[in-house]
Design a protein that fits this description.
Blueprint: E1 4-10, H1 14-25, E2 30-34, E3 49-50, H2 62-78, E4 83-91, H3 99-111, E5 122-125, E6 140-149, H4 151-164, E7 168-171, E8 173-180, E9 185-191, E10 196-206, H5 212-218, E11 227-238, E12 246-250, E13 256-262, E14 266-270, E15 274-275, H6 287-298, E16 310-321, E17 335-340, E18 346-351, H7 357-368, H8 394-403, H9 411-421, H10 425-428, E19 436-438, E20 441-442, H11 443-453, H12 458-465, H13 474-487
Parallel strand pairs: 1-2, 1-10, 2-7, 4-12, 10-18
Antiparallel strand pairs: 3-6, 4-6, 5-6, 8-9, 9-10, 11-14, 11-15, 11-16, 12-13, 13-14, 17-18, 19-20
Helix pairs in contact: 1-4, 1-7, 8-9
Length: 508
């Protein structure tokens, strides 16, 4: 069956779902297809930060830093349960960038983004501060503010809002081919069970991230821009220090490494930057990268992590626009559009970063305005994501409210729910919690993730929509997988069934 849409968006990472959300909110008929899970690749493999990119100033990316800092403020308002302020300690020592240079960079960082709600930079004597306790030789340093975020939850929550506004979100649905007709794209999509579906769309948006060139080939087109693939890897270890501050450590090769509090009991360390070739789906951390990250922390920390301390690791491929920079670190993190209008339009997106996804979506639709003259005006700058309408007192107040709801939900789980779902956690609690599958994971939450968030596999639940894979046992993970398999048997998406109503989501 063929159905007509204004936009076919290919790619369920943060940029794809942001474009789908923005477009649906402007009254467009939107279908997004993702060959795997939402945030299944680059968008769940970040350093989990919403930040301006302090180090980008070294490479002269002032426009990107200015936009990122402005977007940091927007996202703090848009999703206060998912995006939360964090202090970053930047120690100085032998081999660091000159103190005057760091001070000048932080001065610019405080002022480039316009109005800000976060505190400004302060100089520190870390030898006299509790913040210097983890360091081998605490001395001079600085403290500045940025934000942490759950990248995969931000992606899924954005997709939920897109669906609520009428977009169709199809996961496990790959683009097989796309061909131009005089006024439309004819596209063939294939579901995970091998069933093919034909749709038509006025415009094709290629937001496939590391696979952007592959999508062009499936549309019978050659790439007009180049892509540089850069692998970034992270490790997770048991908590290295007390406190909720992060550390930005300057390594002896000129790069920086973050050490970030993660999931209460752990520290997240990253990232590496290595050229990558091949299928991005096969990206994996190497022993050399693990050693590099442990050694980088060891330059600064009195008790650095060892290889045997690593409890989890992940790697992702950044699809950066090829600007011919000498090193992976110097390649721009800005985004670039390529609009092919030799027939029905195809807009391809190169580069981009988590922090600027909302603005990228606005810019993408600005580029398509000529072809969509009836499209409504931009609207997302003042919007809220699902769950963002927190009570007075924010996440802490909601955590206390959830903890009072019943004895089954312990305090730590209440906090996780408040930070993951915001005010929508109340909806999950309307049903009995049901069977327990591990630390704080109940049947009610699993059903929510299946019915509202497109979860299909244990990895979808344990490593993307939650990080309970860090706590759960092998047997408990098997129980989760079995439960999901029973409730998510492959079926033809209802959007392709005869008489399916427009604008319905695909998770039932």
């Amino acid at each position: 069956m063929s159905e007509g849409y204004d936009l076919l968006v290919v790619g369920g990472g943060i940029n794809g779902v942001a474009i789908a959300r923005d477009a649906a909110g402007r009254g467009l008929r939107v279908l997004l297809c993702e060959k795997g899970d939402l945030a299944g690749a680059t968008s769940s493999a970040s350093s989990k930060l919403v930040h301006g990119g302090l180090r980008y100033l070294e490479h002269g990316d002032f426009r990107l830093v200015r936009e990122s800092l402005a977007e940091r403020e927007v996202l703090l308002r848009m999703a206060p349960h998912l995006v939360r302020p964090m202090s970053f300690v930047l120690p100085q020592g032998p081999g660091s960038r000159p103190r005057w240079l760091v001070r000048a960079g932080l001065f610019l960082y405080d002022r480039l983004g316009g109005a800000r709600s976060l505190p400004g930079t302060r100089a520190l004597d870390l030898s006299r501060s509790v913040l210097g306790a983890p360091l081998r030789e605490p001395g001079a340093g600085f403290i500045y503010a940025d934000c942490r975020v759950d990248d995969a939850r931000l992606t899924v929550t954005t997709a939920r809002d897109a669906a609520e506004r009428g977009a169709i979100i199809l996961t496990r649905m790959a683009l097989v081919s796309a061909q131009r007709a005089p006024d439309l794209w004819n596209a063939i999509l294939q579901s995970a069970n091998g069933v093919a579906h034909e749709i038509t769309a006025r415009i094709l948006v290629n937001a496939a991230g590391p696979w952007v060139i592959d999508v062009l080939h499936r549309a019978g087109l050659a790439a007009q821009r180049a892509l540089r693939l850069v692998k970034g890897s992270h490790i997770v270890v048991s908590r290295l220090y007390e406190g909720e501050q992060a550390y930005l450590l300057q390594n002896d090769d000129g790069r920086i490494v973050f050490v970030i509090p993660f999931e209460r009991d752990f520290s997240l360390i990253g990232t590496t930057e290595l050229p990558f070739e091949g299928d991005p789906a096969t990206a994996a951390i190497t022993e050399e990268e693990i050693a590099y990250l442990c050694r980088a922390v060891g330059r600064w920390f009195a008790n650095p992590p060892r290889r045997e301390d690593v409890v989890w690791h992940y790697a992702g491929v950044r699809p950066l626009y090829e600007d011919r920079a000498r090193s992976a670190s110097a390649v721009t993190r800005d985004y670039v559009f390529n609009l092919d209008a030799a027939g029905p339009p195809l807009l391809s997106i190169y580069g981009g970063k988590l922090t600027t996804h909302r603005r990228l979506a606005e810019h993408a639709l600005e580029r398509l305005q000529f072809y969509l003259p009836k499209m409504a005006a931009a609207w997302t700058a003042q919007s809220l994501l699902p769950g963002a309408d927190l009570p007075a007192g924010g996440v802490d107040a909601l955590t206390a409210e959830l903890a009072r709801s019943g004895p089954e939900l312990d305090a730590l789980s209440a906090q996780r729910w408040a930070q993951s779902y915001g005010s929508e956690a109340r909806q999950i609690l309307r049903e009995p919690l049901g069977q327990a599958f591990g630390p704080g994971l109940y049947e009610a939450e699993l059903r929510w993730l299946i019915e509202k968030e497109w979860a299909r596999t244990a990895d979808d639940v344990l490593w993307r929509r939650t990080k309970l894979g860090l706590l759960i046992t092998h047997d408990e993970a098997e129980q989760v997988a079995s439960f999901l398999a029973r409730l998510t048997a492959p079926a033809v998406p209802r959007e392709f069934a005869a008489g399916a109503p427009a604008g319905q989501t695909a998770y039932r």
